[in-house]
Structures
1.
Amino acid sequence: MMIISTSYHIFVKEFVSEFRTRYALNALLMFVVTTLSIILFSIGQESPSIDVLSGTLWIVIFFSAMSGLSRTFVAEEERGTSLTLRLLVNASSVYIGKLVYNFALILVLSVIIAVSYVLFITEFTVKTFEIFWLTILLGSAGLASASTILAAIIAKANTKGTLFPVLAFPILLPLLLTCINATKLATEGAFLVEAVKEFQILISFTVVMIATSFLVFDFVWKD
Amino acid sequence: MKTWLKIAVSVWLTGIIIAGIAFSMVKVPQTWYEFPFIPGLEEKARNIIFHVPISWATVVAFAMSMIYGIIYLRKKDIDYDLRSVSSASLGLLLCILATVTGAIWAKFNWGSFWNWDPRQTSIFILLLIYGAYFVLRSAIDEEERRATLSSVYSIIAGVTVPFFIFVMPRIMSGLHPGSLGDEQGKGPVLEFKMAPNMLMVFFASLIGFTVLYFWMYSLKVRQMRIERHVQQITETH
């Protein structure tokens, strides 16, 4: 299949150009450390309820995704490489390659966040690890699915930085609320079957997002 | 719009406002101009005649905006973008009205202006989406690029709407009819428990507000076309 091999090459290109500078990765890791320490400072000696803690976990993941994922398309526009890319490969492969790269990036990031969250915040005890990790996995997929197309949109706008979270928040809200719900279930020690409804929502959200983005990406990319 | 239709809508809506405000709500109606109580709502049920049709018109406006966005992407004619943005701006206005009427109703029925009920959350998100839509539009100078990108954004936002309407009320407990925990509600569409005369005023109001929206929409589109035309003239001179 032509499209799979070109998408794979786009993915490799993203990966290589990221590791040449390690700008995004380093910045994101520092972002995670900073936000987590702010949360730890603000908690202090208090023991906040588990509901609040599940919420803050997803706030950290959301904002680190917002600061990291917009890079993929903005960097192309800044370096002026988008025209070359447009000449060489078709739009669908660009979309798929960048989507997979974004998914890999956000997955690594949210696993790091989740592990350090569980380690450092002692009040946050996860009882059902299957639900917790599945939520992290599906939540990352959902975040990547919606933010890839939005990153392509804002790369063409004038104010790139602040626009991204503004555009992304209302679209990602059903996903975030479901993730928070599922995380609560994981901390309450629910069985895996009890979270099936949440997983169904997460999967359908991701599928709907990817399908729609795939259809409209051509218009954004060729503009 | 035809002149007779404008006059008809004005008279029609005046009648509905009078009926909605002046018709008394009593336990046992005696005449045709008295509405019977709806259990749990009593006198406050009056708001159905205003709040629900405005919310309906909001949905119509945003749906029209998205449809014209899709047509723009297919035809690349800037006039469809003018229609799309006109409908979206009216939708935003109606959305604010629906939020305010809903909040007032919530204060007197549920005790506070804002409860984060799933429907309230959804309308808040609609406000955010179209707020973001106009922010996005203001961030792009080029006319065609602005039209394309905002159309794409409204499509992306449009596909998340089913999650708010059908999915969220099922997983969150809420206060609106049709939410989780409401035994009588059987889904997102509320069962009509109104008396025939009230039902008639309600549907008349639904039609009235929809036609009003189309009137305002045609005015707004014409205004946008003239504005664009004037701008082009001043740019060339």
Note: Residues 131 and 196 of chain A are 9 Å apart (CA to CA).
2.
Amino acid sequence: MPPKRLLVAPLVILFACKPPTPAEQMDSALSWVATARMAGDAWLRHTTPDKYTREILELCQQTLLQLGTKLLKAPVPGVDTASLDNLLTRSRGHIAQMAALVTAKNSPGFRQQLDSLISDEVLVKQFADSAESKQ
Amino acid sequence: MKKILQLALGIITSVGGFLEIGSVVTAAQAGANYGYKLLWAILLGTICLIFLVEMSGRLSAVSKHTIVDATRERFGFPFFSIVMLGIVAVAFLVLVAELGGIGLSLQILSGIGFRWWAIPVSIAVWLLMWKGTFGLIENGASLLGLVTISFAVAAVKMHPDWGSAAHGLLPTMPGDGKAKYGFMAVSILGASISPYLMYFYSSGAIEDKWDESYIPMNRIIAGFGMTFGGFLSMAVLVAAALALQPRGIDVEKFEQAALLMTPALTHWGFYLFAFSMLFACLGAALEISLAIAYFFAQGLGWSWSEDLDPSRDARFAFAYTIIILLGAIPLLFGIDPIKVTVMSMALTSATLPLAIVPFLFLMNDPIYLGKHRNGWLSNSVVAIVILISFVLAIISIPLEIIGG
């Protein structure tokens, strides 16, 4: 192996072994909000079954709860933690409502919650971008 | 005519049996995170696999030995037992991942959690092994696995930018996130170059009674089958790059990957994904169970053949029975099959030198291969594989253990 690679490999390992940064956790939160949105869009287009849609929305909600707790413990530098927590809590609420509305087969109500989630997604993205720029 | 049919079947089953949970998950994660940028890793892994599979078939056709037989005979039992320990342990983890993949596919179809499927799935796999023949396992599951071609249909229907995709076939480094990118490349290579496939293929050549006249056919099956299979892996990556990356979705859970084909194929996309994974993982679970049982039987000198009645090779049948039942246990405890997949891909990388170094010696031994020994090209490719696997091992294991 070339000497340069021998030096780089341990650095790569060290760099990768640190726990996820708050910015990475923000990216993960954005990914789960986006997942809920995609699953919601798919359900409205009748492309996914009810059981699966409920299951993935519940998974999104649980994962966002865990990520929110972690972000509260290790705040993102330069980000208003209280606003972020409010936003994630609100997003989880929309996702929980969507899961319930799948059971009720209430498409108009579901669409309303999905629209609200889409607005939240824009804000989560702003937080994620801000966290990345300050990393 | 019979050989032409065998050739066609060989290529078709290689394509249908190419994808499994490791290749799908790693390609989907790569596409979702880096777009087309990691296509080169699939290309490299596929080229390596073509050579390794061709060599496995050639060794069996010429020497009438499986890789396991020849390794034990050439290097002695003490060395062989070290190889066996490493390979079987990792193959077992891959089996757990595949059984979990079947369970997860059934979970998204039925809404019943994957752990509830652990026992029924294991019994179904065991029954297929107990009642089935080698032909059924080799061809049946792989023919069902042809449903995975839907990944290619979905990728094409999403109109990829072919220029950017072609650019992704050349290795590049991203501006930031190099460590994650490197780990993704490592996982893809680990998923592509699976030693169990070599052991299964070489045992299959003996089961099918190959001789030297099969060498050209072996070359074509390995070349075309693995190439088309590699294209399917690339299709998964392209589909993820088009469906998930623009939305900012990373694939941390199986449920997220299930949305992969819905933008292109609507409700068919969801069911095609579920059935693709179901059949791909079923085929892989059968092949791995058989490969592990072959390893024990050939290594310990037991009578073996999937075509024999279990009463005539009882220890061989006992080996796969125990392995399949043990494979269900971690899933019963709710271990996430995706985490097992990622771990097993890294450990696969670590065990590649263990599998490939002795294999290289065998492939150059005139006692086993006579005039059909490796040429410079095959040797160079195997040497590169060993180097890659070494780098894979030293990078991926710490990443996995410490939590990269």
Note: The radius of gyration of chain B is 20 Å.
